[in-house]
Amino acid sequence: MKRKIVFAMIEAGGGHKAPASAVMEALDRNYPGLYETGMMDFIKDIGSVKVDAAHKKSWKTFLEYPTLTHLIYQVQNTLAPVTRAILYRTMVAPAVKDAVRFVKRARPDVVFSTHFFATMALVEARRRARQDFKIITYQTEIFTFHAAWRVPETDWYLTASDRAARNAARHGIDWSKIKAFPYPIRPSFLESRRDREVVAAELGLDAGRRTFLFSFGNQGAGMILQYLIALDILGSPLNVIVVAGLNKSLRARLSMNRKLLQNLRIIPLGFVRNMNELIDASDVCFIKPGPATMMECMHSRKPIIFNVAATPCEQEHANYAVFRGVAKYTDGNPMLFGMAARHFLKEEVRQEVARRYEALALRNGAQDIAAFVDSVARGEDSAR
Fold first, then answer.
1. Which residues pair with 38 in a beta bridge?
2. In this structure, is the dihedral angle defined by the CA atoms of residues 286, 287, 293 and 299, taken in order, positive or negative?
3. Per-residue pLDDT of the chain in tens (384 residues, 90 and over written 9)
4. Among candidates 153, 107, 121, which has minimal Cα distance to 2?
5. Where are the alpha helices (DSSP H) in the chain?
6. Where are the domains of the chain?
7. Is residue 42 a contact partner of residue 8, using CB atoms and an 8 Å limit?
């Protein structure tokens, strides 16, 4: 019988889904037919739909008010035990019964969790159900640590940097449980791309123009128009791909106004499945500094302009890229965005960014993490 490995994330943005998808894809590719794998939007898929909806609604609100979110984040870390107790009582405890039913029914051998709520629920469900399976927690914050990640009962705790590993140990995760790997990117993300010219023609891009990619989720349509105006003022003919995701009002607003900006050819898109091709077709990426999109752009070696960071951990992500000379940070200011755009439109600047990426020598951690998950599933992780 195949061992069962469940990848438990919560789809509140791509930051929790992307690393789970990357590791699962690498595991399936490197160990074909050996494991039964599956991805779950965990709290929702076990049946706690109302709890899941409340969490995602609150997160969407936090994204709309980044200054408030930064403050709340700091308060939560200062009052860490209180934070965990409140989050557990409101967002996890109501889902535990469903989690117990799930582990009894599914009988997983390993659960790879990329969200602290999933880890909290799984730890308690394992205890109540008296089921024997391993829980691997993957911390999606690349450098920092939030109080909610402290779930010491997890069997393994994986991070994307040595700095994050030290922070986790400082906040109560046993050192012997912590392992650091490079951030994981889906292998197919970097491999399965059509030629840039084919994608550009399909989108209707003008081959004689430089291309900007806008992608930052739940930000307001009005603010995006201000950024587009700042870009238009530069006077250079440009293509602009705007990924609106599930934000239908944003896409509609862009469709109505895209001909008003004479220097821009605007291509508004909804939810897309070929972000790798859109990044590859672009010369500059304007994004929110979430871990997944940032690392996907960096592995694609693109100049990056960051919008406002929603949390302190996102600020540290932006700092990492800015300090290495491959990005600029705007703090949500259209004027700073215009200055950054002008900077990256210079050919010599983009050449310097390419040299900086060459020196960075980024590594994809998906294969290494998949090999580790395999060792856990085979029981070869007992010697820490």
1. 6
2. positive
3. 899 999 999 998 779 999 999 999 999 999 999 999 999 999 999 999 999 999 998 888 888 888 889 999 999 999 999 999 999 999 999 999 999 999 999 999 999 999 999 999 999 999 999 999 999 999 999 999 999 999 999 999 999 999 999 999 999 999 999 999 999 999 999 887 899 999 999 999 999 999 999 997 544 444 788 999 999 999 999 999 999 877 777 777 777 777 789 999 999 998 888 999 999 999 999 999 999 999 999 999 999 999 999 899 999 999 999 999 999 999 999 999 999 999 999 999 999 999 999 999 899 999 999 999 999 999 987 544
4. 107
5. 17-30, 42-45, 49-64, 66-78, 80-87, 93-106, 116-129, 162-170, 187-191, 196-203, 221-233, 248-257, 275-280, 291-299, 312-323, 334-344, 347-360, 366-377
6. 3-184+364-377, 189-360
7. yes
Contacts of the segment 46-50: beta carbons below 8 A, 24+ positions apart: 46/95, 46/98, 46/99, 46/101, 46/102, 46/121, 47/98, 47/101, 47/102, 48/94, 48/95, 48/98, 50/94
Pick the CATH number of 189-360 from 3.40.50.10780, 3.40.50.2300, 3.10.150.10, 3.40.50.2000: 3.40.50.2000
- Where do we find the tokens 């821009």? 264
Residues 333, 223: contact at Cβ < 8 Å? no
Residue written as tokens 């023609």? 201
Q: Can you identify the CATH homologous superfamily of domain 3-184+364-377? A: Glycogen Phosphorylase B; (3.40.50.2000)
In this structure, what DSSP letter does residue 176 have? G
Distance CA 211, CA 205 (A): 8
Spatial CB neighbours of 318, under 8 Å, sequence gap ≥ 6: 289, 294, 306, 309, 327, 329
Rounded distance, CA 248 to CA 171, Å?
41
Q: Please choose, from the candidates 62, 326, 331, 338, the residue with its C-alpha nearest in 3D space to the C-alpha of residue 217.
A: 62
In angstroms, the CA 275 to CA 95 distance is 33
Instruction: Identify the bridge partners of residue 214 per DSSP, sorted by sequence position.
Output: 242, 286
